[in-house]
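Name: LysE family translocator
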Amino acid sequence: MPSQLVPFLLFVIVLTIVPGPDLALGLRNSLRGGTSAMWWTGLGCCSGLLVHAVASVVGLSALFAASAQAYMVLKLAGAAYLVWLGGSTLWKSWRNRHEPVALDLPAAPKTAIDRRTAFRQGLVSNLLNPKIILLFLTLLPQFISPGESRIVTSAVLTLVFLVVALVWWRVTSWLVGAMRAVLTRKRVMQVLERVTGGVMVALGLRVAVES
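Structure predicted for LysE family translocator:
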């Protein structure tokens, strides 16, 4: 058992609950696919975390991060993907702006997102996030004490990270599902679509321009 497990757990909990691109994507998908879409988006995001964690343990991320050109390509691809997802959400919201608004009945989304699409979007979003590469390269070593096996301790810490992320996504998707009757009202959904779409575009642009 890693000696720094408790500090790592507390750090990961705080890191996980801070809103970011993943949550914006999950909320966006929940508007079109409900609890299931948000949960499968989270599973995709967690799968992306796992891929980065494995790459970090075997040293591939270090080689990738050492290449400025490769890092830039990945960063711009991730930024473009976020902007595209956010922009498509804003476009759909604008295109449907003149449709009748139901004040008492939940809206029935025309473009429901299935599990496979939600999972793929969460996976791709995380795979194209260069910050996660640097996160594992810089975070895990800080919680490996001298004398501990690097591979074993990294594997345990990665498992803890994934469990925390999965629990967070499960709880969050349940909460969103419980509020679905409100969230899917036409007016509310239009506002949320525009907010989440705008946030994703802004996050994508920030990723593209920051060093």
